[in-house]
User: Fold this.
Amino acid sequence: MLTNALSPAQSMPARGFRAEEFEPHGLDEHWSGAPVRRLEAKEHIFTEGDQRTHIYRVEKGAISLYKIMPDGRRQILGFAYPGDLIGLGACEEYKFNAQATKLTELKGLRWAAIQNSARHDPELALKLYEAISLELAAAHDLLLSTGQRSALERVAAFLLAMSRRGGGRDRVVVNLPMTRADIGDFLGLTIETVSRTFTKLRQLGIIGLAQSASVHVLDIGALQELAEGGRA
Amino acid sequence: MLTNALSPAQSMPARGFRAEEFEPHGLDEHWSGAPVRRLEAKEHIFTEGDQRTHIYRVEKGAISLYKIMPDGRRQILGFAYPGDLIGLGACEEYKFNAQATKLTELKGLRWAAIQNSARHDPELALKLYEAISLELAAAHDLLLSTGQRSALERVAAFLLAMSRRGGGRDRVVVNLPMTRADIGDFLGLTIETVSRTFTKLRQLGIIGLAQSASVHVLDIGALQELAEGGRA
DNA sequence: CGTCAGGTTGACGTCTATCAACTACGGTGG
DNA sequence: CCACCGTAGTTGATAGACGTCAACCTGACG
Assistant:
């Protein structure tokens, strides 16, 4: 029911929430009229410190949300998939950057409008509250990964979480709309370690790697065991 | 203005929010009537999976919020100080454990009551939304630490964040109401690494360590540089 | 066919975990 | 009063996991 990033034992998409299940009802009408915006890969929706004018909903593609340090180190906080909302944080400025990982379409709503509605519509306000509390749960799960899990465990947890995105739970074929660099910066690993770990999982017969962007999950049980530290 | 855990460049307490600045006005009246509950060190308020019956406000002491893996690895998500709220997540069950790090007092409010009020009071609902979005920002900052920063950088960022708790900004004497083990599990380090890093900071003349629970910040500029990766 | 971004693999280095010994402190009880 | 014990913290030696540097491969695209 929740929307955690790296919680393989639970049943949640990796960030934000599935529109059909959790979208604030009070937002539906607003979205229908909103114009579609198209982004090329690597194009930004907004960057940290920008005035927080809109909230966005991903229609197609995928968005990475990330923070970056002065020396270039980057931490991806999550990936937003179609149906996910972006920019819910209640503050004057965006607190992170949002960038398309591939060709992406999204809709935007003026925050001022949402805020006005919410001031007279407790239902809507509570929906915002619920939506963001799902994001918090996702952040907490990712925190458990980056803080405590080994590289193998992190990648296993990541693949499990990804296998549960996009509706059908525990899909055999998982599509990864992001690069190895993105995965690395999400999990707190380097490109090389991510690549090596994928290879190890393939050698163990747990996954298949037809193309690098498409993973076949062959043994989901093993993946779950690994993610929970069943064996190091 | 925000409440981030490890964002030394910004000015926020480590988790939750300062009551006098951010507490939902609609909650004030509720709290005044609530009974005080006293907890010994290591006593739990609730554990993961418990029915989410109350939200709590810390009055004295400190609470650690943590997740734990089957094999005992623990990730502390944050520390709640006096004025901070606990258990805001919008779901049926608590998603983490809450445990006193020392003798602590807190007040609790039945969630059902808050929820009922919020359904008719958009102001209150929006306050909940704002409160939890601050927690999300805190989680994101911690994520940047555990995912990207070195041990030295993490401890520097942690000390900076702690120096900004408790009202007076950039206090020279910082009190740490948690053990080295707690700090380690918060930052994704071991006790030994935390201890060694404190020693290194002392040898560098950046902090003073009279007692292990009380840190004197001697050179806050150096701490900031370290936290942002100024020099590795 | 050349170029470039993305991905894989190998050799090596290093940061931090692990294992272990030791100190300091506080409480408890003889 | 002091011996004893448990918890917390520090420090040292060692090992291992992951990062770094580098070569190479692949596929897309002009």
Notes: Residues 150-151, 189-190, 192-193, 196, 212 of chain A lie near DNA strand D (CB under 10 Å from a C1'). Chain A touches chain B through 49 residues (CB under 8 Å).
